[in-house]
Amino acid sequence: MVLSRVDLPQHCAPRNEVENIRSLLESPPDVQLDALKRIIKEQKRERLLVVIDGLDAPGLSGKVQRGKEHRHRFFEQIKDFVNDLENYKAKVKALLTGEPVVDASSRTQHWICINYDEERTECLSSLLFDNSRYENISSGHEGSFEWIWTHAEFSDWLMASKSRLIYVQGKPGSGKSTLTKYVSESLLERENIAETAIVAKYFYSDREGESQRSHYHMLRSLLHDLLLQDENFFYSGFQKEYRNHLRPDSGMKRKYESLKRVLKSFKIYQASKPVYLIIDAVDESDQDDRRDILDLLLDLHEGPSERSTIKTFIASRPVGQLDSTSHNFIRLQDWTRGDICACAISFLDRLRLPDPTFYRSKALTFIVDRAQGVFLWVHLVGKDLLRNFDDGQSTQNVLEYLEELPQELDDYYKLMLQKICKNERNIADSRMLLQFVLFAKRPLTVDELLHALGARNTPDTGQLPLDAEFHLRVPTSKRILVCGGDFLEVKSNDERDICQVMHQTVRDYFFRPNSQAKQFILEKIDQDAHISIAMICIRYLTVVVANMNETKGLPPFSEWTDTQFAVCAQRLQQWPLASYALHHLAGK
């Protein structure tokens, strides 16, 4: 061996070749480095690869990393060693690996430097999408859905050693999203799989805008979660797709098809952990390509058992493509009677009935029987009963009112709309709010809606109001709750208060062709609510421009500098609807 013939300093004085090698390995780094150079010089091979791994290894800390000076000296020696390789007869290539423990100045300019995982990190950033629906789902009543863990179909899906899909079907308002969120959170906590499994989730939502019902964004979210929790997946074919099709300059359709191929490839990828895909509200997803997406998800569970174990949980209203006996199935409303009972008790207790045992039992039985598994109906009934109680109604009147309430959601919404129409002072604001919430191109904040009301309530006198006068016409946030008639709700999202319809069934109700509800929001607007929204936006921007012109001390626009633009931007922040109005009128 070449190593055994290396001359050692006298203090090493080996007795044989084994001792020679042992002594060399125990020598100071300078001696070892010098020996390595001599070994390479004696090599007769034309090509030689030198690999130095673990430059950041803990073992270096005792010998080399005793301070910045020692560490710097060590890397300078490595640098000189690598540079000297060019002088040898053999074609030598060197690979150095380790965490960044030295700054760039310690490297020579012609070194090729690769930051480990940089490309995967860039890919993760490109996949990141804010699936806002998840955060807006209310938690269920305490103790709700505990039955799911002992349900035979769910247990079979959860405990299966092979890939399986479970389909939770539920009627509108039956608590599908609440259950899905509960399962998503509890899988990590209750089943203790945080360290032993990969969980990826997506919650479709029609009422929260086009982006939230997009299959493209669903694929992005799922793949982001998968790649974040299993970095090796990137190097199984994902990397090639990312380089070829998922760069920022790639077209949307090209990216979409690439994402589908990547997800499909997961079933032949050997994942180190079981994978759980949690998908809610498929019925609210884009109808375009929905069939292909469902085929893709179903196909993930058909493959060799030695590959990844993929458990998919899908919750949705009835979707024909999912009606199959080949996977586990739960009809949600058949199993929630106990949960609905607990929900009803929570608000009946607040009524403080004179004889709780009798009256609460009577009301509870009536509510649970009439609910037919629809939590949303129970929620609406509870709000109505509490309002009647707060108005001072007698117990008998409250119970009689309960028995008169419609059983079907559509009939309940019709009753809610009739209440709005009875208040002539509020009806115009109610119509405008519903138009903006239902037809806006993105969810609007409370401040944006209040300024829209301010613009609508500005009289068309030919003289535009100044800043202070306009803001006097902007109502408070309570106006939304009063005029929304329980159709609207306010949710906090990224420190902003967003106004939306309180459930997807509200959108369904107002969008039914030739319905009284649709006629209400489209009255006198030539069957196009967007015209009404555009008119409000134009009026609002006119007021904004008029007030900008009143800004004192600004030179003509052609002479503006960065300072004037900054002043203008600061002024525009006082007009929250301006950004949406400009985008809406621009058709973006």
Automatic annotation (TrEMBL):
Coiled-coil region list: none
Superkingdom of the source species: Eukaryota
Keywords: Repeat
NACHT domain: residues covered: 164-318
PANTHER family: AMELOGENIN, NACHT DOMAIN-CONTAINING PROTEIN
Name under which the protein is recorded: NACHT domain-containing protein
